[in-house]
Amino acid sequence: MASRESDRSTVHVVEDHPLYRAALRNLIEATPDLNFGVCAESVEELAASSPTADAVVTLDLRLRGVSDTEAVSRVARLGFRVLVISAYDDDIHVRSAMAAGARGYVTKHAVVHEILRALRTVSAGGRYLPPRLAARLSEPIAARLSNREQQVLALLAGGARDQDIADELKVSVRTVRSHLDRIREKTGRRRRPDLTRLAMEKGIVAEHVRL
Fold it and tell me: Are residues 68 and 105 in the same domain?
């Protein structure tokens, strides 16, 4: 028996890629317990359309105008439950989106049943991350970082500059910066003070790491 419209969860789509936008619309319209709402190419267009507030918004991160965590934050402030559907699955994008107010996060590689599971979970007031992402994000920091990355982080936390770290480890500054980029991706921390704080919190300091 078909669901009554009042029993169905409304889903708005914010996606600037025409093919993926159409695919999401077709999926939602073909699902009996979901009700398709507004389709927009940007956060500004969504806001201007004055859609139903008690709804889920699927949100890409890379959009014209407001994008990334700012887009997540703005859509959440409008009263929507945000499910990010993005091409990016690195820790920094996932952590940043969830911290900005997203209720769920899946990638554009997700299969149909996982997208539907995410939509239903978020619509019901829950939070959703694919098991693979959830397991990775719950993994201890030390387990995520290689020994060399821990060495770099420990030296940074001790106040060393990139050149100091390079000299200590007998590598190039370029190599040090490459390690720092990977540390940022794995931890979701971008600023040096935040990385220093993280290292102190997790005990990743020079005297505890073999250099």
Answer: yes
